[in-house]
């Protein structure tokens, strides 16, 4: 949402569909599927990301199926290309996901640069995005916090831009709010922080900056109490969004009394 065109909060709209929740969650790293289910319910998320290369959603009929605890009838499943390091692998992975999910179009593209940083490989990301959009996918895309490349992805036709706050799984929070603000200001499609959130205050800050939503996995699944953290993240997203819509007071280098001086008794 462009801050200059800010309107009443009527929900998050991605690829023409409205969602009440602005918190998107991952499905990996939990101790078991029951914990996945309980944390997802506590988060009250509606969009759930699934790493097609790592999580069973029907590829193996003899293994536990994630869709048994987060059914597509209740949630929007968002297949992602975690573990892909080139455009070709990412494209193939999402084409497979489309077959497994009966023609599902909404996907999350991420093409990684290396195994150490998991930073996005932007040339390969741009290449894959162009092919996938032409192939009829609604592409949400993980990217660097570079406003120029974010605009390129939007121009290609991606339905949501997802810049990293910091490295995947690092819990470092938003390291460059200025770049993020530039992306938010210029974008006509939703901007969602993806990667780096560590705790509830990070999520709230992202929303206060004007992000349309936040996607997270490790911050919840890696917490000592994932279900409680999921609930905290839900509340942080809601509080941050309310603060953004309310409009914060300006920062200034002078004190301002809480009570008016005019009309005082003595």
Describe this protein's structure.
The protein is built from eight helices and ten strands. With 266 residues, it is α/β, with parallel strands linked by helices. It has a five-stranded parallel beta sheet with strand order 5-4-3-10-9. The protein has a three-stranded parallel beta sheet with strand order 6-7-8, covered by helices on one side. Strand 3, helix 1 and strand 4 form a beta-alpha-beta unit. The N terminus is likely disordered.
Helices and strands, with pairings:
Elements: E1 12-14, E2 17-19, E3 23-26, H1 33-43, E4 47-51, E5 76-80, H2 87-100, E6 106-109, H3 122-134, E7 138-143, H4 147-156, E8 160-163, H5 177-186, E9 192-194, H6 200-208, E10 213-216, H7 218-221, H8 226-246
Parallel strand pairs: 3-4, 3-10, 4-5, 6-7, 7-8, 9-10
Antiparallel strand pairs: 1-2
What's the total helix number? 8
User: Given the C-alpha coordinates, what overall shape results?
Assistant: globular
- The number of strands is 10
- Helical content stands at 25-40%
- The percentage of residues in β strands lies in 15-25%
- Span of the ends, CA to CA: 48 Å
User: Structural class of the helix and strand makeup?
Assistant: alpha/beta
Rg of Cα set: 19 Å
Overall average residue pLDDT: 91
Q: Strand order, biggest sheet?
A: 5-4-3-10-9
What composes the largest sheet?
5 strands, parallel
Low-pLDDT segments: 1-7
Along the chain, the helix and strand elements come as EEEHEEHEHEHEHEHEHH
């Amino acid at each position: 949402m462009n801050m200059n065109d800010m309107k009443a909060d009527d929900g998050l709209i991605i690829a023409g569909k409205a969602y009440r929740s602005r918190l998107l969650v991952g499905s990996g790293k939990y101790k078991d599927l029951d914990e996945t289910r309980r944390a997802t319910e506590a988060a009250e998320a509606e969009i759930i990301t699934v790493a097609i290369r790592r999580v069973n959603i029907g590829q193996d009929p003899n293994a536990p199926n994630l869709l048994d605890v987060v059914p597509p009838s209740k949630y929007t499943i968002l297949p992602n290309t975690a573990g892909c390091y080139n455009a070709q692998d990412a494209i193939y992975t999402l084409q497979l996901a489309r077959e497994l999910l009966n023609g599902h179009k909404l996907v999350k593209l991420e093409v990684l640069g290396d195994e150490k940083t998991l930073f996005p490989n932007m040339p390969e990301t741009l290449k894959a995005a162009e092919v996938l959009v032409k192939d009829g996918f609604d592409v949400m895309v993980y990217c660097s916090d570079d406003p120029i490349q974010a605009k390129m992805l939007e121009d290609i036709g991606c339905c949501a831009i997802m810049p990293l706050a910091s490295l995947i799984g690092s819990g470092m929070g938003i390291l460059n709010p200025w770049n993020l603000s530039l992306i938010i200001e210029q974008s006509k499609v939703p901007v969602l922080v993806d990667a780096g959130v560590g705790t509830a205050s990070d999520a709230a800050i992202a929303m206060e900056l004007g992000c349309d939503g936040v996607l997270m996995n490790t911050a919840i699944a890696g917490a000592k109490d994932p279900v409680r953290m999921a609930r905290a993240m839900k509340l942080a997203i809601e509080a941050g969004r309310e603060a953004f819509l309310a409009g914060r007071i300006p920062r200034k280098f002078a004190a301002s009394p809480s009570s008016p001086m005019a009309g005082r008794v003595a």
